[in-house]
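Before drawing any conclusions, I needed to go through one protein's amino acid sequence and its C-alpha cells, quoted below without any editing.
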Amino acid sequence: MKRILPLILFLIMAGVSNAQEKLLQHVVLFEFKSSAKPEDIKKIETAFSALSTTIKEIKKFEWGTNNSPENLNQGFTHCFIVSFASEKDRDIYLPHPEHKKFVALAGSFFEKVLVVDYWQQH
C-alpha cells in the first residue's frame, strides 16, 4: 500500500493538471489550386511548420493530410492545428511578422482556406 499511494496521488495530480490545461485550438484547412506543384506544397508545409519554432506563443503544433475515405473534405487536403494557451497569445500570433510572411508566401497557392478556433472540451 505504501508504494501504491504515491502512484495514486501522482495519477490524481496528473489528471487535475491535464484538466486545467485547456488549449485554444486554431484549426487551418487548405485547398490548394490545381496549379500548385508538389514542390510548392512542400515549401508551404515546411514554412507553416517553422512558425512553431519562431513564434513563442505557439504551445503545440501538428498537421497532416486528409486520408478520410468518406470523401467529405470538399477539396481541403491539409489540416494544421496551432495551439495557444490563451486568446491573447492567438491575437499576438495573427499579426506576427513571421505569420504575415507565411501568408504572403503561401496565399497565392490556395483555392480556399478554412479557419476555426475553439477551446478544447474535455
